[in-house]
Amino acid sequence: MVSQITRGIKISVLTSFEGTYFKNYKINFAFAYQITIENQSKDSVQLNSRHWEIYDALNDLDTVDGEGVIGKKPVIKPGEAFSYSSGCLLSSPIGAMKGYFNMVNFTSTKSFKVLIPTFKLSAPFAIN
């Protein structure tokens, strides 16, 4: 698990390899990840959007931007946490992801970015 704290918001990531799948006559490597967003600040915050950079050892960088996460824009009060699971397909057994969440602080009404630490995606058989 990797974790990082930005402005009192702790992001923790746990990953797993889910197997190989054929799609469009091509092998894909499936990875799942669980993100936990813990509000260690004194203010309530809301996650509004996300930005991902997905690195695949056999492909170019892929970026993904979108509203909220899993169809939600969670409000996280001080001392509370929000967790969700998602995944991605890579064309190689090794890759990585990183990014950030755009959030708003309800007390100051200011927007800010919370960094998502770089996390590795690797199939167990690809590691020595």
CATH architecture level-2 label: Sandwich
Structural class: mainly beta
Shape label: elongated
**CATH superfamily placement:** ApaG domain
Helix content: under 10%
Number of domains: 1
The run of helices and strands is EEEEEEEEE
**Most strands sheet:** 5 strands, antiparallel
Q: Give the low-confidence spans.
A: none
CATH structural class: Mainly Beta
- Chain-averaged pLDDT: 95
Strand content: over 45%
Reported by name, the CATH topology is Immunoglobulin-like
Radius of gyration over all CA atoms, rounded: 16 Å
Organism: Flavobacterium ardleyense
Protein name: Co2+/Mg2+ efflux protein ApaG
Domain ApaG: 3-128
InterPro entries: ApaG_domain (IPR007474), ApaG_sf (IPR036767)
Polypeptide structure, described:
This protein has 128 residues and is mostly beta strands. The chain has a single domain, classed as ApaG domain (Immunoglobulin-like). 0% of the residues lie in helices and 69% in strands. It contains no helices and nine strands. The chain is elongated. It starts with a strand and ends in a 6-residue tail after the last strand. Pfam families: DUF525. This is Co2+/Mg2+ efflux protein ApaG. Residues 3-128 form the ApaG domain.
